[in-house]
Inverse folding.
C-alpha cells in the first residue's frame, strides 16, 4: 500500500506499508517437498481469493500474481504486493497500461495466463489463472509447468493440459482438485466467474474438512437429563465417611420463651 509520494531534495520517494512476514515462496521452501498441509493450503487460498476479490472490485488487474508477490504476515494474513505492471480493467490510461504491448508479454512465465501469452485483452479472470498456478504449487510443490526455457513454459500454459494434482498428491480432496483445474482452464469462459465465486467454493471445502462432533456412545443414547442434585456421582470414600460421622452435629435451638 502506498501512503504517500513526492520529492525530497530533488529525489522521488514513496511511503509504503511496512509488512512483517515472508512471501509464500519462502514459506514453501521451509516445508518438506515445498508442499503445504492441505488445510493450510485451503486457508491460504481463501485469503488470496479474498484479497483478489477486493482488488478486482476496484477494477485493478494485477497481471503478475505469484508466490513471491504474496506476503504471509505474522498474524496469518495475506497481502498482494508489487502492482508495478498492474492495469485498470478496460485498459484505462496509466503509467503501467503500456506494459505488455508491442509483442512483449508481461508477467512471469510460470504463472502467466494463456491470454497474457497471446496478448489478448485481459480481465480479472487472467489473475484467476495465475491464482490457479499458485494454488497448484501450494499443494504439489511446483506450478503446473516448469520444464524448459520460458518460451516452452509459456507455450505449455497456452496449449498443454495440466497434470491433475491428485496424480501427484492423492490426499488432495477431489473438490479441491476441481477448483484448481477450473482456475487453470485455457479459456477464460471456462474459469470461475470471479474471485468471490472461488472463495465460496474454497469455504465449502474448508467446511467439509472441519472435524465433526463425536457421536455419543451407544449406552448414552436416549438418556434424558439426570437430576444431579439427587445422585451422588462419585461414592464417598470410606475414610471420609467415617470421619464425617464423628463430627458433632449442630444443635437445633428450641422454642424461645418456654
Amino acid at each position: 500500500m502506498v501512503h504517500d509520494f513526492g520529492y525530497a531534495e530533488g529525489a522521488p520517494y514513496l511511503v509504503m506499508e511496512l509488512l512483517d512476514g515472508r512471501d509464500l515462496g519462502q514459506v514453501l521452501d521451509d516445508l518438506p517437498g515445498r508442499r503445504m498441509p492441505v488445510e493450510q493450503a485451503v486457508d491460504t487460498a481463501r485469503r488470496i481469493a479474498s484479497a483478489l476479490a477486493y482488488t478486482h472490485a476496484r477494477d485493478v488487474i494485477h497481471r503478475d500474481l505469484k508466490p513471491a508477490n504474496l506476503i504471509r504476515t505474522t498474524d496469518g494474513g495475506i497481502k498482494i504486493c508489487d502492482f508495478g505492471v498492474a492495469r485498470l480493467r478496460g485498459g484505462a490510461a496509466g503509467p503501467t497500461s503500456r506494459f505488455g504491448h508491442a509483442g512483449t508479454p508481461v508477467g512471469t512465465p510460470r504463472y502467466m495466463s494463456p491470454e497474457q501469452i497471446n496478448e489478448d485483452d485481459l480481465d480479472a479472470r487472467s489473475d484467476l489463472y495465475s491464482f490457479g498456478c499458485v494454488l497448484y504449487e501450494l499443494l504439489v510443490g511446483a506450478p503446473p509447468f516448469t520444464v524448459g526455457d520460458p518460451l516452452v513454459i509459456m507455450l505449455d500454459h497456452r496449449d498443454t493440459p495440466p497434470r491433475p494434482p491428485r496424480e501427484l498428491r492423492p490426499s488432495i480432496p477431489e473438490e479441491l482438485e476441481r477448483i484448481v483445474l477450473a482456475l487453470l482452464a485455457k479459456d477464460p469462459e471456462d474459469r470461475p466467474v470471479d474471485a468471490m465465486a472461488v472463495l465460496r467454493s474454497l469455504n465449502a471445502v474448508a467446511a467439509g474438512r472441519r472435524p465433526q462432533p463425536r457421536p455419543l456412545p451407544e449406552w448414552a443414547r436416549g438418556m434424558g437429563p439426570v437430576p444431579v442434585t439427587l445422585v451422588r456421582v462419585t461414592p464417598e470414600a470410606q475414610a471420609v465417611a467415617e470421619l464425617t460421622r464423628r463430627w458433632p452435629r449442630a444443635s437445633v435451638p428450641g422454642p424461645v420463651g418456654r
The CA atoms of residues 100 and 106 lie 5 Å apart. The chain has nine helices and seven strands.
